[in-house]
Amino acid sequence: MKAQSIKTAAGDIKTGIAWEDVAASLDAHGNAVLPGILTPEQCTELAALYDRDDIFRSRVVMARHGFGRGEYKYFAYPLPPLLERLRRALYAPLAEIANRWNRQMRVDVQYPDTLDAFLDQCHRAGQTRPTPLILQYGAGDYNCLHQDLYGAHVFPLQVAILLSEPGRDFAGGEFVMTENAGRSQRADVVPLRQGDAVVFTVNERPVAGLRGGTRKVAMRHGVSVIRSGRRHTVGLIFHDAQ
User: Fold this and answer.
1) Which superfamily is assigned to 4-236 in CATH?
2) Tens digits of per-residue pLDDT, 93-123?
3) Per residue, what are the HEC states of 112-152?
4) Per the database record, which ranges form the Fe2OG dioxygenase domain (predicted)?
């Protein structure tokens, strides 16, 4: 996979993503950072959408469901143009990685080349509700370790984009991943700046076995406690929900 630009109607989002490096980081750690995929201006515009009600299908207060503290809103279709185009542009190179992973894990699922084709599979299975979302955290809030699994059709990679600036808008609130491979467990804190995206494993990923071959390890993600300020994040999930 060659480096490439992602363009939207709002202009270039990111120039020269080195997808081979992204794939290598995902293989090694289960996550990869795309630095500066959005500009500060784009981040501010997206964060401001949180106060609107007309563009969202639902609001979730996390404490009511045992998810942690904070809240998030799922966008309704049609998505904001910036997120729609970004979701489509990121899907194709990530599908290539996802298909390779499934072959390594001997999972008999291969993802189509385009997001439209994949969403058609989701919709025919009754998964019709959009899953891109925006999250809002204040002081004392956090997100429990979890996996975003919404139905039979699950895309194994997800993208979160930090819209706020650490150290200026908030303190704490680090993106955290854990890996569970039986007796072997690992935690990974992924540092992000405003406009950075992290691509990460939704459920399982392949790793080399100690005696050869490939084994599956389970991944979870969350956000540590916000010590002060307010943190906004956009989440791009590629499968729709039931």
Assistant:
1) q2cbj1_9rhob like domain (2.60.120.620)
2) 999 999 999 999 999 999 999 999 999 999 9
3) CCCHHHHHHHHHHCCCCECCCEEEEECCCCEEEEECCCCCC
4) 128-241
